[in-house]
Amino acid sequence: MRFAFTTDQLALRDAVREMLVKECPSSEVRSAWSNANGRTAGTWDALMGMGVLEALVPEAAGGLGLSVLDLVLVCEEVGRVALPEPFVEHALVAAAVVGSGHGSMSALVGPAALSVYADSVDAVLVEDDERLLLVAREGLVLERQSSVDHTRHLFTVDWSNTEATTEVGGPRECADAFDRAALGNAATLLGLAQNLLDVTVDYTATRSQFGAPIGSFQAVKHKLADVRIALEFARPLIYRAAYSLSVDDIDRSIHVSMCAAQVADAASLAVRHALQCHGAIGYSDESDLHMWMKRVWALQRAYGDPAWHRERVARAILDKT
Amino acid sequence: MDLSWSPTEVEFRNEARAWLAANVPSEKLPSGDTSDGFARHLEWEQRLFDARWAVVSWPEEYGGRNATLWEWLIFEEEYYRARAPQRVTQNGIFLLAPTIFEFGTQEQRDRYLQPMAQGTQTWCQGWSEPDAGSDLAGIRSTAVRDDVAGGWRLSGQKTWTTRGAFCTHMFGLFRSDPAAERHAGLTYFLVPLDAPGVTVRGFGRLDGDEGFAEVFLDDVFVDDAMVLGEVNDGWKVAMATTGSERGLTLRSPGRFMATADRLVQLYRDIGARASDPALRHAVVQAVIDVEAYRLQTLATVTAIGDGGKPGVTSSLTKVFWSELDIRMHDTALALLGTAAELEDNGWMKDFQFALSGPIYAGTNEIQRNVIAERILGMPKR
Ligand SMILES: Cc1cc2nc3c(=O)[nH]c(=O)nc-3n(C[C@H](O)[C@H](O)[C@H](O)COP(=O)(O)OP(=O)(O)OC[C@H]3O[C@@H](n4cnc5c(N)ncnc54)[C@H](O)[C@@H]3O)c2cc1C
Description:
The complex is a heterodimer. Chain A has twelve helices and nine strands. By secondary structure, chain A is of the alpha+beta class. Chain A has a domain at 172-317: Butyryl-CoA Dehydrogenase, subunit A, domain 3 (Up-down Bundle), CATH 1.20.140.10. A four-stranded mixed sheet of chain A has the order 1-3-4-7. A three-stranded antiparallel sheet of chain A has the order 2-6-5, with no helix packed on it. A two-stranded antiparallel sheet of chain A has the order 8-9. In chain A, β8 and β9 (212-213) form a beta hairpin. The radius of gyration of chain A is 19 Å and the shape is globular. By secondary structure, chain B is of the alpha+beta class. Chain B is 46% helix and 13% strand. Chain B contains eleven helices and eight strands. Chain B has helices spanning 7-23, 35-50, 69-81, 90-103, 106-118, 234-246, 253-270, 278-305, 314-336, 348-354, 364-375, and strands at 123-126, 142-146, 151-158, 169-175, 186-192, 198-203, 212-223, 227-228. Chain B starts with 6 loop residues before the first helix and ends in a 6-residue tail after the last helix. The mean pLDDT of chain B is 95. The interface between A and B is large, with 44 and 49 residues. The structure holds flavin-adenine dinucleotide.
């Protein structure tokens, strides 16, 4: 029994963190709010250069041959900086199925109804009647939907009138692709929520009212303590689910749903308390907080909402005889 | 990362499970927080001790098995799974003993550990006083040096002392240097409750049992060998005990895993008739939360194995398990509907006990202060 990451896994996380902090400061997210494709200028290439976008592709096929467990901490870093890129869709979902050489990819799997960045990727991996299809962007009919998070360019996707599809998986691949998406999304939410907590702890130490830092008031302290507790008891479920996906544990879908429900609720709490502890500055669109909060609202239901995930656990645990 | 148990651990689990299956009394014992029930529970403790299951993680010389922390967790899971009797020796074996192992003299270990494990000496915790609850450093009970007799004279009043009316001994904090700063002048004493000058009065708790006691001390003499740790260093020694109380040892995941299992069973039995469909997800959430606590503990034990110290993170754990326990019992009562008020429905009494979780072992408000200031580094007032 050992529930901890290896030094290699931590080193990969640190390397990605260092790069993201440099390449994707909040000003970069802010420009993605209004630029043409909602994405960053150089981060994608930097991630590609580090190999993490094809980390799950076998070494023989040109990837790093890593597992979801190796990537879960990277997803957290992606969340921490609110990276506006289809990282989870590409690295955890599509590339893991089709390998490298297909350019950048998005995905549309499970109960998800909209595909993110479908207009700026080269292909989209879609789930169609228990089959996975890779569809080239030219073959897709896209209709833009506007997200509360303006970096998320969302689309309904229609591939019924194209020949440009390749079948790349069956029912088992569909199920696993969705579980990897939900896990990657959960880890991203964890990073987002951790960042919301960190910036709020910092802010409440510097903002003074009544002659004292507001962070010294108990009403403020207890809110942030509650966020810290919620994250403490979401994090291990996420790492557990990543492990289960990596070792093909028979209960991996249950573990994914457990962590997805837990972290979505923890991230909601982080948003509420972060905003309240900032006061009006947090309500203004001049502060960065709004971008992070809106990302949470987008992601917390992106791959099954908490009730959907709880119901999936309920069917497995309560209805079993 | 490797979340599988080793063959030795699996064997350990099987052995524990088999012994418990063969030995746990088929009829539930009367509550250990009553005088008759306490005696019945001590018979059980003796049986556990004879089979060397009373204190698995202790060295063999004191009746243990030298079990690893992992094995201890496994034993706890099996113990609660088997619905074995409550541990009336818990304040001794889980709170005082780790402190004796860390701070005690060899003589103290030899004198107290084995009788504690056997249940022939039983310990209660004498910290709170009428005017010192959350603010433990405000205690007023005194220890006055008696150089002639070679010891100390203790006076004052302790209260809320769990099972104080049934125990043979008490560990507690006393003010030994009235001139020192609040935290500095305290000493940790071991006190036999049959010493001249001790009066104990038991009284009832919310759940109806006589689990509380007041302990009055009037010039009670204890010799120097009854000081645990250094004189005037009692605060540091006591903080080691609270770490055990909030964290790993007193309330291990096994206890809550068993409650969640019972809740799932209750849902399977009567959930379909429940009036509130949201209860289905409340039951699932309990299962998820208990799994989160189990996994968080696995991470903690891994870190301890790597040389880390759990320290203040036990405050996170304490808030989480105590509030989770209430949510689980709330959900069970909601499932029971009109039968919730029945005293013998298997949940009402435990529900009332669960409500004390956010109060004892340092209230959850105090834990949140600790989390904010010592984990998040927020400014002190
Ligand atoms: C079932 C049970 C068993 C117990 N067993 C024992 C035992 O065996 N031995 C023993 O010594 N004690 C025992 N206790 C006592 C327990 O340690 C105290 O109840 C606890 O420390 C709180 O003290 P208090 O009850 O005096 O409440 P108080 O300290 O008076 O607190 C009352 C309320 O005020 C809040 N409050 C106080 N200070 C602050 C602050 N700084 N910030 C925010 N809120 C604050 C508290 O959180 C609480 O909500 C037991 C209690 C219970 C309920």
